[in-house]
Write a structure and sequence with these properties.
- The strands form 13 sheets. The chain has a 9-stranded antiparallel sheet, with no helix packed on it. The chain has an 8-stranded mixed sheet with strand order 14-16-12-11-19-18-13-15, with no helix packed on it. Strands 21, 22, 25, 27, 29 and 30 form a 6-stranded mixed sheet that branches.
- Helices cover about 5% and strands about 50% of the residues.
Amino acid sequence: MKKLYLFGILCCCASAFAASLSKGTSNPAIGVLLQPTSFGPGISEFIISVKNTGEETLTNIYITSDTGVMIFGTTSWGDVIPSMAPGEEIYYAFGGQKPAQCTDMNQVIVHATTSGGSEITDLSGEFDYYSDDMTFTYIDDYIYAQQDGIYVDLNGNSMVDVGDAVNYTYSIPSANMVEIYDSNAIVDNPTGFGPFTTTGIHYLTAADVAEGYVYNSATLNVFDSCSGSGMFQDPTPCMGCPGLSNCPNCVVTPLTSALPNSISGNVKFNINNDNCASGLPFPNRKISTDNGLNTYASYTNPAGSYSIIIPSNGTFSTTPLSNLGSNFSSNPASVSVASTGSGNDYATTDFCVSSATNYADLHVALIPIDHPRPGFSASYKLCFRNYGSTNLNGTIQLSFDDGKLTFNSATPAVNSTTSNSLTWNYTNLLPFEYRIINLTLNVLPPPGAATGDLLTFTLSGPMAGDANVDDNIFTMEQTVVSSFDPNDKTVVEGAYIGLNQVDDYLHYVTRFQNTGTAAATTVVLKETLDPKLDWTTFEPIAASHDYIIQVVNGNDMTVTFPNIGLPDSGSNEPASHGWMAYRIKPKSNIVVNDVMTSQANIFFDYNAPIATNAVSTQLTSLGNSQFSSVPFTIYPNPASTTIRITNGGNFSFQILDINGKMLLSGNSGEGDNIDVSSLQAGFYLVKVTTTTGCGVLKFIKS
């Protein structure tokens, strides 16, 4: 049985082999090719070639089709070839046409008469005369459209920088319904019935600015019966612009004929008086440069390094001493650079900053990272920095409303706690070093905390002998909400400040979240500082990720988070958030009812900017504390045993702790001593009331 089975297979194979040979070598025989030449618009065309594959002369050769191909002759004999000798081949003996379809399968039949008067036939193949495969055709409506790009200085600062744009014009010649797909631009009305013209915009990234060119490769989808495609060509190509090997058809838009230059270097603090041979990095130090017409500034990173983008012409004077105070000096005090050429970096512009005297100056700030919601946790950053010239050791204390909040967690760990306060110890805080405490509090569910409730916080860093006691205490009020926009702006001091707060800093926080569908490579915050804010007092506090700041002419601020890799909220919601905080003072000449406003635009890669809410702070005769402003001073401050209050008359006073609890009270007059020896060392509030109103100042008991 096994032998019979094998014999059957061999017989079948032998028969198939013989059949294959008989088509090509039998006498008589003929073969035909059907090959497509072009598709559309509206028609498919074919070349039909014939070959006598047998051993005798054939006559009366013609073509028919069962698939609808219309046949026509292409030679002098018309639709019938009179005769063909053995082995003779006639290329393009006939032509064929058929109404175009998106996909189609076709075949023709060749007929011939033998010497004995009988008819033989053969089905066409596409690639050789000896097969009978059908010819496949596919219609692709490929369209060539035009795309032109023009650089636009959106912020009008005469520099190519993040926030500027390339405007595109797309011209579609097709009469079909088409859709423009451009992953590198935002297209207005990308779908339309042609011919039509539309526009798009690409917002520059830091990578674009560094490159000096924007590369774009938009495509088209054609929505006809065959769903074709297309590409764009540049009607005004950039001659001499560098091309990309992986994008030979890109539309290349130059941003400027000359790339901007940059000034970069490092700043150190001369802690050991050795001209910074063992100096400490000077982080967050403003470095400014100007050419007599415009001022440009940036801030050092944690390693003390900085880079400022400048125009490609002019002489620039650079200094690290802006707003640093007369106690400080720098070697060198300034550096002059002549900016020429294109894309040059004037590196090694380094500075060594020294302090004439040693002094202590601790600064604290409380940054809300998200909004408190009933039943959820809320995150905060407790920031403290040594603005003095000597190492500091001490404590950071936070008090909060334990009727609405409870402690959840903190990094670093808390050293001591009560129901409404937390205390951290710190040591060896170096000059100009800043540290951050990450804190999470639980917001109680109703009725403990309800939407609209006000949460109060007081952050303090008691420091004996501090040269600037005003920034050792930080108070904040925060409203409980039910929902919030993840891309928003907050001014910590609130909607109103009093006259006694004019010389204090305003603290701004910009929060952002990637709610897209992929990770963001670059995030940029653009903001125009209010003209009533003094940009010379601007200081970055901290941010969620590494960042670079550029400030031009005192009001055009750009914060760039390069290579941030911010996950989208669908992939990793907790990591999809970011933030940046800074502080700045009002100008000294503001008057009652003046309003200072802040609003930012957030750019995620190539997407259109997201505008945050605008926050406003108004100077009023009543601040957020609802106290009238009564001018008075306290001295000495800090004090160990007694204080004196000067206001030019008689008054009553109350001394309160940072939680608002009254500890001492009484009546006094100009120059009278008030005994505070019974108070423990720390921060206190002094409320003074006269016949014309009342006011509050901070006081430190040493």
